[in-house]
Amino acid sequence: MDGSGDAFREREGTSPDSAGSPLRKILHVDMDAFFASIEQRDEPKYRHRPVIVGGCPWGRGVVATCSYEARKFGVRSAMPSRRAVELCPHAIFLPCRMDHYAAVSREIFAIFREVTDLVEPLSIDEAFLDVTHGRAAGSSATHLARTLQRRISREIGLTASTGVSYNPFLAKVASAMEKPNGLTVISPERAVAFLDALPVRKFYGIGRATAEKLEARQIFTGADLRALSLETLVELLGKNGRRYYELVRGRDPRPIVTDRPRKSLSKECTFGGDLETAAAAIAALRRLSSTVVAALRSQNLRGRTVTIRVRYANFETITRSRCFSEVSDDESSIAAAAEQLLLERTSVAVRRIRLLGVAVSGFAETPGRRRHCRGQGELPIIFENCY
């Protein structure tokens, strides 16, 4: 991809997203192997070596993230740690240090907000930045992207990959094209040709199952996708069909959202050994409920919906939910609802359980107090399978 900046002309013009609207300048900044890179930064002996952050290789943990040195051996995020150690037996396995990673994330987001107030966090280590107006107005988007990369390297000691384009979808896709420490620019003139050549598996939001479904219909690239009618796409992809009809044509007019409320709080745990009795599962569920309630109260939230997640020993995973008539942060009520779901709507009495989770959603804010939002760079409460 062209990272020179020449491909994205900083000029007045209208956006392909919406006729008559001014051309937007959107960055997507994605930190490279964030957790593992922090560990390598903090401990010189880990540098240039395969580092895997996550669960124990001798237990049931999974890989949270891994360094690029480990990725060369086929290690990937969400892979069982046992498999990771088979692929890379000389890897360095480290536990998650979420509080530390969160602190580093806040430093990075502070740099983003020096450039623009329009920052939309997608996770602890990535964000959209709209640099069309405000303090960034008049500046080259490509120059701003390079400046951010240099500052993150100099001040934080980490690298980031950045995509530059005129809408969020294209910027997100662009940032993944040249990792690590890459800069990819997609101009309005190049957008459709770029998307035509892009494999459907690399379209942001298309997962493995959807990609396999499309490929079974001989739909392998953006060009194949663009050749389909709106009706066919809706038939294939449901409500997302209309969205991808627009995206494959280079159109994504949605605004950058800086204050996105948290939709749920959850806690889950993968157990070192399967839970074989209902009593053991209930005890674990109560502990998880207690943790979620503590998080609710710390953020001054009450929820209406309780959801449990159950993964059986054969990896089959189910979710079950129930709603209260009123919002609540009462621990006994939430724990009782979770227990009732477990006993009445799962096979806990006859099947071994590998993972349990509890979530509360449907929030109302406690009067007079301010809710924490993703827009403030807050972390999800849950980071599963860490030591």
Q: What percentage of residues falls in helices of 4 or more residues?
A: 25-40%
Provide the CATH top-level class of the largest domain: Alpha Beta
Name the helix and strand elements from N-terminus to C-terminus, one letter apiece. Answer: EHEEHHEHEEHEHEHHHHHEHEEHE
Mean pLDDT: 88
Shape: globular
CATH architectural grouping of the largest domain: 2-Layer Sandwich
* Sheet having the most strands: 5 strands, mixed
Strand content: 15-25%
Give the helix tally. 13
- Taking all Cα atoms into account, the compactness measure Rg is 23 Å
Count of the separate structural domains: 2
CATH topology label of the largest domain? Alpha-Beta Plaits
Task: Identify low-pLDDT runs.
Answer: 1-7, 368-387
Strand order of the largest sheet: 5-6-1-7-8
CATH superfamily label of the largest domain: Reverse transcriptase/Diguanylate cyclase domain
Compose a concise summary of this entry.
By secondary structure, the chain is α+β, with helices and mostly antiparallel strands.
Your description of this structure?
This protein has 387 residues and is α+β, with helices and mostly antiparallel strands. The chain has helices at 34-42, 68-71, 81-87, 98-115, 141-156, 168-175, 191-197, 208-216, 222-226, 230-237, 240-247, 278-298, 331-345; strands at residues 26-31, 51-54, 63-66, 92-94, 119-123, 126-130, 160-165, 183-185, 264-275, 301-312, 317-328, 353-365. The strands form three sheets. The protein has a five-stranded mixed β-sheet with strand order 5-6-1-7-8. The protein is globular and about 65 Å long. 37% of the residues are buried. Residues 1-7 and 368-387 have low confidence and may be disordered.
